[in-house]
Specification:
The complex is a heterodimer of chains A (360) and B (535). Chain A has 360 residues and is mostly helical. Chain A contains 17 helices and no strands. Chain A starts with a helix and ends in a 5-residue tail after the last helix. Chain B has 535 residues and is α+β, with helices and mostly antiparallel strands. Chain B is built from 20 helices and 19 strands. In chain B, strands 1, 8, 9, 10, 11, 12, 13, 14, 15, 16 and 17 form an 11-stranded mixed beta sheet that branches. A 4-stranded antiparallel beta sheet of chain B has the order 4-5-7-6. Chain B has a two-stranded antiparallel sheet with strand order 2-3. Chain B is globular and about 70 Å long. Classes of the chains: A mainly alpha (360), B alpha+beta (535). Chains A and B meet through helix 3, helix 4, helix 6, helix 8 and helix 9 of A and helix 1, strand 8, strand 10, helix 9 and helix 16 of B.
Chain lengths: 360, 535
């Protein structure tokens, strides 16, 4: 009875307990290794960004007090910033502050770097998300179409379109887009996130202009924000589309030659089912990586697009900070981007386990 | 069937925006008639506190928000008129200035502007001691003595006593700079933290009595100003002014063409030519007091040779560069005080003369194969100019190696006196010739650890006589004698200085044809939005 209870009982039996224990160990070990990898990556990021920032042959005080400050003003600023300390002590101080969530104040905006990032990052998030949506919604079907029409005119056309997306400088594409669709045709709104007549009546809640205008219940402002987003998102979306289309096509081509595809067709499965369920299902893991990489690339800051469209995003923030030798801002923003990369990697890992049972 | 599925998927992704197109349309461009929208590169703006602000964009905005004790007359910038001060008197010995305040002035907060506010504002600049504080501390005011020397002597009277004597005109000119802004002490002190005199708060706020108050400043994005209906010169016609940060000139051009901006501030010569060919736009070309020069480091024995320096001044194609490269953005000007400044020398004796340059180099005995490095900021128009200079120096027999770097990197090297030649830009700190002369013709200590790192020091130009002459000019009470002194100093620097003085900036602003009353003025903080109207 006891044995039967042990073998039948789903819970509490020694074997089950051992299995549960073992699963828990595996989970803990995986979580631990994950945490360790995140900690090491972030630490590496901190070390590299800090020391690169310090070896740049630019006087850091120039950004803080300018070129014409007197020597005692410079000395006072150096003291406040800890620049008089040995490099390793500066690093420890920086590390301690960062771990407590204090990234310091940006020299350029005078605001805490985290506040700046909280203001600039949503603009980039909104743009990158819209662009990635365009890239995925158009890029995946185009990639599938190109692969299934391999060598035919549809394939050639899609390859040319994708190649152009890769080759044409995004900066030029943005300017031409503005010239044609904004200046000449008037189909879209101009540079910036929203017209000045709405800008100061919308309370920033999420920082995402589309969401904030909706929350404010201002339909006209929402429409305006939408039309401001269309062109930069399309330009960036084209870049994303080019990458996703090419990757989807090549992944599909590799998969279409597999025996299981022939077997499925021989079994009489419809072509639609073979392509969209079996083949696409099997390339889903590398495709997720492709989309995640593309998204991360856009989140990192599409500097040129943001410059052309006067889009106050993270890329613009980092670049201007770099040109102004505002290293506090550069370091803070780099860490945030690093964390976004890590976060997207973790998200991809999670998605693998959802779409591919072998990864569980 | 399969084709239909794929096409459906694509049609869906295209169809969503297409459907949206049907239901909403983008609003038509054109700014409201009582709103001024300006496209400008404002990425240098780091603070709006008048005690700290020393950047071009920030200084321009501060000038709209605050009234100063005295201010340059927009009709004639060489003259000063009262701002917060209605009148002033200078003691016979020039050591004391007494200001009587304009009655009935109020701050944006509604608080009255008092003599205590004036004294507190100037004291605050000295006590905080940020970068532009030297404009006031040069008078001998320190954190310890400023309350004794800058004080309200009555409800509408302020008295300033100078510890270090300077010409009264210099003192008044210095007070017309941003540091002379009168700040609402009651409001600022409400936001004081740990005795910081409101420094932490005022960075991105306004507490003035100027034509506009700050509505919002989003760094690297936009500044929004709102009209002050109680401004003492009358309420501005523009209820709101938006200065949008547009870094890319091509985008600025599109915005003004489309009517989404009324003014574009950073256009290239070609863009300006295209726009102003249309009757929809007009150009405001304003000579600024900013100059471009080549610094010649006297630590390099070749450049320390006066004949070599003279030869180099003859080996620059000034006119050619203005015509072919700079196209109206800069004009030839070979002295350090810009045209339009009190005491400026407007004589341009040097022209490209390769033969003369060769002869001078031969006379110098510096040797046949002269090689010099040339540090240049890696942005336009510096690179093009440097290449042109490299070419003409080459014709004269001087081989120039260009070193292009980020501007701050060039400055770092320049401040360390590690350059041979450097292409650099200068803009005065306030509207008085001493501001620039102090840097170009004064070097009280040429040692490597000197406290004063003037332009003369950076080029290791040891000039005890000129330093004395500069100090004397700053003290001269007689206006004509003072002007003469600056002319003499400039002539000496032009002939023998450690510089090749090249050009004076002309700021080109493009306005839509319906915009009037925008004033640029000779410096960054003489820009004035308050008189702008739109028809």
């Amino acid at each position: 009875m006891a044995v039967a209870q042990q073998s039948d009982g789903p819970i509490g039996s020694p074997a089950e307990e051992a299995r549960a224990h073992s699963a828990l160990l595996r989970l803990s070990s995986r979580a631990l290794s994950l945490i360790l990898s995140v900690v090491l990556t972030v630490f590496g990021l901190l070390v590299v960004t800090f020391f690169i920032g310090r070896v740049v042959p630019v006087d850091p005080l120039l950004a803080v007090v300018g070129d014409r400050a007197s020597e005692h003003v410079r000395a006072q600023a150096a003291l406040e910033l800890g620049l008089d300390l040995p490099l390793w002590q500066q690093f420890l101080r920086y590390l301690g502050d960062t771990l407590q969530g204090d990234f310091g104040n940006s020299v350029l905006s005078g605001q805490p770097v985290l506040d700046d990032i909280a203001r600039f990052f949503p603009a980039t998030l909104e743009l990158a998300t819209a662009a990635t949506l365009i890239g995925v919604l158009l890029g995946v079907p185009l990639g599938v179409l190109a692969a299934t029409r391999h060598g035919r005119w549809q394939d050639q056309l899609i390859r040319v379109v994708a190649l152009a997306g890769y080759s044409v400088p995004v900066f030029w594409l943005g300017l031409v887009g503005l010239l044609v669709f904004y200046a000449e045709l008037g189909w879209v709104a101009g540079p910036g996130r929203i017209d000045v007549i709405y800008e100061y009546s919308i309370e920033p809640v999420t920082g995402l202009m589309l969401v904030d205008t909706l929350l404010a219940g201002d339909h006209a402002a929402f429409v305006d924000a939408f039309w401001h987003l269309v062109l930069p998102a399309s330009v960036l979306g084209y870049l994303s589309l080019a990458y996703i289309t090419r990757m989807t096509r090549s992944l599909m081509l590799a998969e279409l030659g597999q025996e299981y595809v022939i077997a499925a067709r021989v079994k009489g499965l419809s072509e639609r089912r073979v392509i969209w369920r079996h083949v696409l299902g099997n390339i889903m893991v590398p495709l997720i990586t492709t989309v995640a990489l593309s998204y991360a690339y856009l989140l990192e800051g599409a500097v040129l697009t943001e410059t052309v469209f006067a889009w106050p995003g993270l890329g613009l923030y980092i670049t201007q900070s770099l040109f102004s030798a505002d290293l506090t801002a550069v370091l803070g923003a780099t860490i945030v981007i690093g964390l976004v990369f890590i976060g997207l990697n973790l998200l991809s890992d999670l998605l693998y386990t959802l779409v591919d049972p072998r990864a569980r | 069937m399969k084709r239909r599925t794929m096409l459906t998927a694509m049609a869906f992704s295209v169809g969503v925006p297409a459907t949206l197109t049907g239901s909403f349309l983008p609003a038509g461009a054109a700014t409201p008639s009582d709103m001024l929208v300006m496209a400008k590169n404002i990425d240098d703006m780091i603070t709006l506190d008048p005690a700290e602000c020393f950047e071009f964009s920030g200084g321009e905005i501060v000038a709209q928000m605050y009234t100063r004790l005295v201010t340059p007359d927009p009709k004639d910038f060489s003259q000063l008129v009262g701002g917060v001060a209605e009148s002033w008197e200078v003691a016979d010995d020039g050591g004391r200035l007494t200001f009587k305040l304009r009655p009935g002035l109020t701050f944006h907060s509604g608080n009255p502007v008092t003599a205590e506010d004036v004294a507190w504002s100037l004291q605050r600049v000295v006590i905080l001691d940020k970068t532009p504080a030297f404009i006031l501390t040069q008078f001998g005011w320190t954190a310890d003595n400023v309350k004794e020397h800058v004080r309200a002597t009555g409800p509408d009277t302020v008295e300033l006593t100078l510890v270090n004597r300077f010409a009264p005109s210099l003192v008044l000119n210095a007070l017309s700079a941003g540091v002379g802004s009168v700040v609402d002490s009651k409001l600022v002190l409400e936001h004081e933290a740990d005795g910081d005199l409101g420094y932490g708060w005022l960075k991105n706020q306004s507490a003035g009595s100027g034509a506009f108050r700050l509505l919002s400043w989003k760094a690297k994005d936009a500044v929004a100003l709102e009209a002050n209906p109680d401004f003492y010169l009358g309420a501005p016609a523009m209820k709101r002014v938006i200065v949008r940060h547009i870094g890319e000139p091509a985008t600025q051009q599109l915005l003004i063409e489309k009517g989404d901006a009324d003014i574009a501030r950073n256009l290239s010569p070609d863009q300006i030519a295209k726009l102003t060919a249309s009757p929809d736009f007009k150009l405001l070309a304003q000579p600024k007091q900013s100059i471009l020069y080549i610094g010649l480091n006297q630590k390099n024995p070749i450049l320390a040779n006066p004949k070599v320096r003279e030869a180099l001044r003859h080996a620059v194609d000034y006119e050619g560069m203005v015509t072919n490269l700079l196209k109206g953005q800069w004009q030839v000007h070979q002295s350090f005080l810009g045209e339009g400044t009190f005491g400026a020398l407007n004589d341009n004796p040097y022209k490209l003369d390769i033969e003369k340059a060769k002869a001078l180099l031969a006379e110098s005995g510096a040797g046949p194969d002269l090689k010099i490095t040339f540090d240049v900021p890696n942005t336009s128009p510096y690179i093009d100019m440097a290449q042109a200079i490299q070419g003409s120096f080459g014709q004269a027999g001087v081989t120039v190696e260009l070193i292009q770097s980020d501007q701050k990197q060039v400055l770092t090297k320049y401040r360390a006196r590690n350059h041979d030649m450097v292409l650099m830009y200068w803009s005065p700190d306030y509207l008085d010739p001493h501001s620039t002369t102090d840097y170009f013709a004064r070097n009280p200590d040429n040692g490597d650890d000197a406290a004063s790192k003037t332009v003369a020091w950076r080029n290791a130009w040891d000039i005890p006589e000129l330093t004395e002459a500069t100090d004397a000019a700053a003290l001269e009470l007689d206006t004509e004698a003072r002007e003469q002194a600056y002319l003499e100093i400039q002539k000496e620097v032009q002939r023998n200085g450690a510089y090749v003085l090249l050009f004076q900036q002309v700021e080109n602003t493009v306005l839509r044809a319906n915009v009037d009353g925008f004033i640029s003025g000779p410096t960054f903080d003489t820009v004035n939005y308050s008189g702008v109207t739109k028809s």
